[in-house]
Automatic annotation (TrEMBL), chains A, B:
Record keywords, A-Z: DNA-binding, Transcription, Transcription regulation
Domain HTH lacI-type: 2-56
Zinc is among the record's keywords: no
Pfam families: LacI (PF00356), Peripla_BP_3 (PF13377)
PANTHER family named in the record: HTH-TYPE TRANSCRIPTIONAL REGULATOR GALS, LACI-RELATED TRANSCRIPTIONAL REPRESSOR
Name by which UniProt lists this protein: LacI family transcriptional regulator
Organism listed in the record: Lentzea atacamensis
Length: 343, 343
DNA sequence: CGTTTCACCGTAAGCGGTTACATCATCGTA
DNA sequence: TACGATGATGTAACCGCTTACGGTGAAACG
């Protein structure tokens, strides 16, 4: 590994000049600059990031806080890969890398879990991270708030947070739910139910609100028995659907707040001898991969999955350089019409 | 941020002693050790990882090389999330973190892509990474070989590599394929076809070999027209299936080398008016999520997805500490019988 | 011709740890 | 009593880079 010192010696300049060539090129004479650059190239010079970080007190890494909630072992993020693709590519534009923070192995007192953000914030300081990206892993929003209040730049995904240098990005959940429900009312349905996410979940609440909006628009009275809670999981969709089908006046259409639950509902409907979409119309949310392979293919509200990552990266970078707080980002959604509503 | 020096002053010892408390605790007197520890805790001391890395020439991070091959924009890893879960948790046991390396933004000459591993290896040196984990992203194995030869400890997933400090982990692809095909012969099928992955792909070749083994065991003659190549994508499965159905003597059973292609084949069969499993039996490979939601649910060969990550982490750590080369890891597979074979 | 300005560059002090080596007291032993 | 062994700690160099500050020479100015 060639060092700056070696380059300096070979070029007959000081290490300071070498450093300046890379950090403030305009302050060094063009001739010597090119000489340094050439030698650096020949030597395959790679600046030592540790030394640089030590000196400047900041690294070119941002941390990813992604804890699978241990209270829900089977939890999977619906579209982690797309999110990471967006995040990674947007960060790379600025020369930043993504550090997937690990909870300390011997979780004695470090206790780095989402429920106790201290460990993560400590890691942030240790590594001089530029900021944190917080992925909603189904746990409570309180932990997110603690992150946001810690002072480190952070952007949360799908959880509204507020803090001195914190912001969040989320989909237009209400709008998406409205579009989904409108699609149903537009098809003539009047008995439209919804299967929601966990009560505390913010996107879930927004989706319920959008659902209610669309009913109101269509002049349909809200019915409490048509709103049943799930947890985004597939089986909860099945259970919810069974409950709905047991009603005196079962719905003819269902808006599920996740594709997983929509599939669960579809299974329940099929088990009950109902044909989809003829006897029951179903709309989902997310547009994950399975939406297009189930039979019938699921009509659903698509989220801009890589867009989450890109927006998060932009927000983080803006907070790092700008040092201020950023406005939340609301990503547009898009209704994808397939076969589960008979449209 | 408290530093070691502050602790030293408060404790009336030197910074060397503070450092020793954390790195060679046994060499420092118990009394002073506890004093240092207590003060460190009170001050919320977090060691500066940049300084430590600069001094020791090694960080507590290992790099993840995961490039979505740009020649295949839509490419997705079939089970990235599970893999990451395993990787992350296994690394955290050793106090290591995962750095998702980004290709340099201005890809002038740095050219950090899988096709040109130089950029990644440079990043490895810059950050003093302990090693690299290479995720197969569908690109050619040559690039992997270049990584393996670079001298940095690295473990490849699903690509057999050889190098001074390189190894790999993969599934028992042949065994899995054998089990899948045996399942088919066991059900009485004699006309069994296979849809393979890309010709150059190693797991794909092993699966073909396993398929052939099982045919031989059952005394069935191999038929070239029953082996048609796909690319692991869904649509290639559809195309391949159409080709198979056009044969004079179409197969009554198909082993697809990926679940995605199995689904594609299923779609083609359905479009051709065939009933699955009655007219055609299908087995897949991977056991990804969609396998259980398609209709009929897919019988498939399950891979130990988190196991990939865990094994990779173990191998990397072994190479970091042991400094030698490690044996490749072959993960067991498991046949998951569902409904697509009528078993 | 003296003085100011400015572009360019070197000097050196950090940044916060790690560790080889020296120091020193203590203790067992010849 | 002298001496080597041992355990505990301090000293100081070093890791490679950044940057405030000062110095130099040439050009511009009065």
């Amino acid at each position: 590994m060639a060092t700056g010192r070696e380059i300096a010696q070979l070029c007959g300049v000081s290490v300071a000049t070498v450093s300046r060539v890379f950090n403030q090129p305009e302050t060094v004479n063009e001739e010597t600059r090119e000489r340094v650059l050439r030698v650096a190239r020949e030597l395959g010079y790679q600046p030592n990031e540790s030394a640089r970080a030590l000196s400047t007190k900041q690294s070119t890494m941002i941390g990813l806080v992604w804890d699978t909630d241990h209270r829900r072992p089977g939890w999977r993020h619906p579209y982690l890969q797309d999110l990471l693709i967006g995040l990674k590519s947007a960060l790379s534009v600025h020369g930043y890398h993504l550090l997937m923070l690990a909870t300390s192995g011997d979780a004695r007192e470090v206790g780095a879990s989402l429920a106790d953000p201290v460990g993560y914030v400590n890691m942030t300081r240790r590594h001089h991270l530029g900021g944190l990206v917080l992925i909603d892993s189904g746990s409570d929003a309180e932990a997110f708030e603690a992150f946001a209040q810690s002072g480190v730049p952070c952007v949360a995904l799908d959880v509204a947070v507020d803090g001195p240098r914190a912001t969040y990005v989320t989909s237009d959940n209400a709008g998406g739910a409205r579009a989904a429900t409108r699609h149903l009312t537009g098809l003539g349905h009047t008995r439209i139910a919804t299967i929601t996410g966990p009560p505390g979940n913010q996107p879930s609440r927004a989706r319920v609100a959008g659902y209610r909006d669309a009913l109101r628009e269509a002049g349909l009275p809200p019915r409490d028995e048509y709103v049943v809670a799930g947890d985004f999981y597939r089986t909860s969709g099945t259970v919810a659907m069974q409950r709905l089908l047991a009603l005196n006046e079962p719905p003819t259409a269902v808006f599920a707040a996740s594709d997983e639950m929509a599939v669960g509902a579809l299974l329940a409907a099929r088990a009950a001898g109902l044909r989809v979409p003829d006897d029951l119309a179903i709309v989902g949310f997310d547009d994950i991969e399975i939406a297009s392979v189930v039979d019938p293919a699921l009509t659903t509200v698509a989220q801009d999955k890589p867009g989450f990552g890109v927006a998060a990266a932009k927000a983080i970078m803006a907070m790092i350089t700008g040092a201020g707080r950023e406005d939340p980002v609301i990503l547009p959604t898009r209704l994808v019409v397939r076969d589960s509503c008979g449209a």
